[in-house]
Amino acid sequence: MNIFVEKSGITRRQFFKGAGILAATAVFAGVLAKIGIDIYKASDKYIEKRIAGLYTLDEKMTIRKSHENPEIIQIYKEFLSPGEVRPLSEKAHHLLHTKYGNDIPKLITELTAHGGHHAA
Amino acid sequence: MNTVATKEIINIDEKKCKSCDHCTSVCPTGAIQGRIGVKHYIDHKKCVNCGQCLINCPFGAITDISMVEKVKKALADPQKFVVVQTAPAVRVALGEEFGLEPGTNVKGKMFASLRKLGFDKVYDTEFTADLTIMEEGTELIHRIFAHAGVPGYEKEGPLPQFTSCCPAWIKYAEDKYPKILPHLSSAKSPQQMFGAVAKTYAAEKLGINPADMFVVSVMPCTAKKFECQREEMIASGFQDVDAVITTRELAQMIKEAGIDFRSLSNEEQADRLIGTSTGAATIFGVTGGVMEAALRTAYEILSGQSLGVVEFKAVRGRKPVREATVNIPVKELGKTVPLNVCIVTGLSHVDGVVEDVLAGRSKYHFIEVMNCPGGCINGGGQPIRRDTY
What is the mean pLDDT of residues A70-96? Predict the structure, then answer.
């Protein structure tokens, strides 16, 4: 290594000057990038507009309560709890409810053992 | 820690990553490793697949796995009866991919374009959102009765009850707070309820062999891609939901098919049977929406009275943690019960709420948690905005 030899390389002083400028630039660029990105992400008016879009749609709907949905009443009366609207029926439990975490392996065993919903 | 299989849904392209560190500031679970100047990567064990990093990356360096080819293959297969469902948040954002303003309602155009793409039945996740309210709302009522000491409800779960629609929140709870799981509603998310009823009830009614049915979801969400692959989601005897595509991917498919989206009629409706929905289901896509929908139904069932004004404006807003008290005259108990509710939007704000519950300090009865700030309308599968001031 002969970079500090005057004739063929640079002096020790020149090296530190260069390295110092490089380091300062790197730090400065890093800080600027971070500020730049924060400004970049700042506009989220579209979130507000999408929210307003859904609330407007809700207001336009003729039926606005889940339990008044005629197809919901139909699926309970014809399939999930024949003859009545009864959430949490046995069939509803089987098809519409689940388990979490450590209870999952047992649930999978039950589901595969019964061979689908027909056994429910 | 991980109780469920970890699927690698979200990935960072090392070649495109500029090491700017912005993603770590939007990641709700600290799953992204790296700092300024170092290439970032995702710790999939901690990742909840929400895709917030993806929609916020200034360099487009983050991607989600795609099931588009699987969907195209099913559509091209004459043996397959391909059924599609669309989440509420998709209909107010899809238009952005075609130059329309955010929030523009393109519900009818969306249904029309799905029919043009060749789906055999175009249904609506909003139908099963209503079904979720029926099941989850009834579950809440039972837990309240159990809490009040009404005989016959001793076996019900504890209060407060947490919502269970958000797959990112579910994975987070399973990974980090196994003790909170009894508090989660056992009701599946609308997406998974849809798959389960499509391959049983709808298949029966339509005379289709469920083995030939292929269920596709269009979701504003990347975590839904994880949810549909969960091993226990097989209540129909088959994988209930076969594939999930995002709002962005649907837009891409529409463009590739050469469909002139903007000129489509906005009057088209979803198919009947499992396609009719209510306004309560529509607001599932907004933070506080599941809560408001549940309140509309729970109030009427508990009180036996019809609501004059259906809006519960107290639960609306964008504050990450909000609370409200709703006084409900409960017929069965013969008194008015103050129902304390809480809404969390942004998973990074949930820890305090969960820890209060675990420590027995919580005053709430019902808590809604959604991973994405603002709700599903700001999900990881939605159109990417590069808006600046």
Answer: 98
Alpha-helical (H) ranges within B59-189 are 68-76, 107-117, 125-147, 167-176
User: What pLDDT digit, counting tens, does each position of B97-106 carry?
Assistant: 999 999 999 9
Q: What is the pLDDT of residue A114?
A: 61
More confident residue, B223 or B19: B223
Q: Does residue B49 register a pLDDT over 80?
A: yes
Is B285's CB within 8 Å of A54's CB? yes
Q: Please say if B189 is a catalytic residue.
A: no
> CATH number of B68-128+189-280: 3.40.50.1780, 3.40.1180.10, 1.10.10.10, 3.40.50.170?
3.40.50.1780
Searching chain A, which residue's CA lies closest to the CA of residue B374?
A: A47
CATH class of the B10-64 domain in this structure: alpha beta
Domain segments of chain A as ranges: 12-61, 66-115
In this complex, is the C-beta atom of B279 within 8 Å of any C-beta atom belonging to chain A? yes
B383 cis-preceded (ω within 30 degrees of 0): no
Where on the phi/psi map is residue B338: left (φ > 0), alpha (ψ -120 to 50), or beta? beta
Report domain B156-187+285-377's class.
Answer: alpha beta
Tokens 């110092």, located at residue: A20
Could you count the other beta carbons within 10 Å of the beta carbon of residue B60? 11
User: Of the candidates B378, B246, B375, B384, which has an alpha carbon nearest to the alpha carbon of residue B319?
Assistant: B375
Neighbour tally for A21: CB within 10 Å: 10
Question: Cβ of B209 under 8 Å from any chain A Cβ?
Answer: no
Over residues B373-380, the mean pLDDT reads 97
